[in-house]
Amino acid sequence: LSSFPIFTHQFTMDLLALPDVFLRKLMRTMTMKDRMAARLTCRAFERLVANSHAGCFENARIIPDFDRNNRKRKLITIDDHSFGDIDSEEGRSEQILQVAPLLFSRISIQSAVIECDGDVFCLDFVRSFTKKFIIQELILVSRTKKGFENSLLLMNDFPKSKCTFDLLFLPEDEALLALPPISTISIWARSEMRLDEPWQLYTSLFFKLIETHRNIYVKHVPITSDELEKTIEIIDKSARKRSVHFLASSFTIIRWLRKYGMSEESQ
Amino acid sequence: PNVKLVTSDNEEFVVDFRIAKMSVTVSRLMEAMNMSETDDASLLSNSIPLPNVTKAVMARVIEWCEKHKNDEPKEEKENDKRGRTTHVVSDWDKEFLKNDEFGRLCQLMGAANYLEIKGLFNDISQTIANMIHGKKSDEIAEMFNIHCDLTEAEKKEIRKKTAWCED
């Protein structure tokens, strides 16, 4: 049986004298800002904050951002708590790495977006900062070859996370084909590229990607109606639920529909 | 069928079997004493001693259990947000706990912990977290009767170190 606290007065009691199971539960219910305030109440609370799990937060972002003058800067947030203006003073990044271990022993994040291109955020910093993170869905954004390589290394740091690669550039074929099966891969799907722009994911590479990865989001694929048929066959082979998003020309789709007797006159 | 519960101050509470089963501790004790729902004699001849709960606190626990006896059991997962920001304290529970000063809440929480009544324990944890939410360190210390053993210089140093991330 748990030890029961001793009451010194009917209505007053030391919060920290309460059973450990309660304190651990309480620490998982507090926001990051409340944890910071609690640290200042006494040494015991300071230790409790540092040595307790912070609970589960909805999202975290470790990404480059732009300031008012359109200069690139570091952005780190956990839910609605931002870790301030990291670039305003030299040594801030180091301070962050010193403060994070004082705020929690572990932290669970439902969805974390990380962009580590080696320019704004270096790999060592991101690895140190996320050392105590348990991430459910890891979204790795990269727009350079270096960023892509760092994303692969970070993916290995979180083997239990559901991983999404959000590629804002097209890596070399070998690099793309060497990717282990991942939950979701998105290539330039977020960009506002027009259909008449030259970039395309050629069909043979597209087939290999949909054979390997579960969910694929890409823009234009120069696919023929027969290849569209093959795409559907590949998707159909898999018993699990999956998403494949791509743009094909209306001409391809019309030809494919006509193959099954569907035209403008069809009911 | 009814179950007899005896508090630390020797008060006997006769509660419905379903309510007694809401406490994991009581359930285990009943099992150890071979008390079963279908055996009235075993229920009549035995009472469950609860030396860590007083009469006043037991009455509150039973009131909470009466209200929640028909609740569906809730499943908690490691990665969901329950217990931090989305453990919703129902209106009835808020009303039930609102007049309890911190000392009373602690007694009730201690009983919920000892009796292993998870729903009540979670409600009280969230209520106390809500009391802390948005407060400054001095206010937290005052509210919970915490003696601050940090010097002003130490506090200043801690604030200085984290000021940039306390937006």
UniProtKB/TrEMBL annotation, chain A:
Signal peptide: none annotated. Transmembrane segments: none annotated. Residues 12-60 form the F-box domain. This is F-box domain-containing protein. The lineage of its organism: Eukaryota, Metazoa, Ecdysozoa, Nematoda, Chromadorea.
Automatic annotation (TrEMBL), chain B:
Keywords: Ubl conjugation pathway. The keyword DNA-binding does not apply. GO terms for biological process: ubiquitin-dependent protein catabolic process. Residues 118-165 form the SKP1 component dimerisation domain. Pfam families: Skp1, Skp1_POZ. InterPro entries: SKP1, SKP1-like, SKP1-like_dim_sf, SKP1/BTB/POZ_sf, Skp1_comp_dimer, Skp1_comp_POZ. Residues 2-70 form the SKP1 component POZ domain. SUPFAM superfamilies: POZ domain, Skp1 dimerisation domain-like. The keyword Transferase does not apply. CDD domains: BTB_POZ_SKP1. Belongs to the SKP1 family. This is Skp1-related protein. It comes from Pristionchus mayeri.
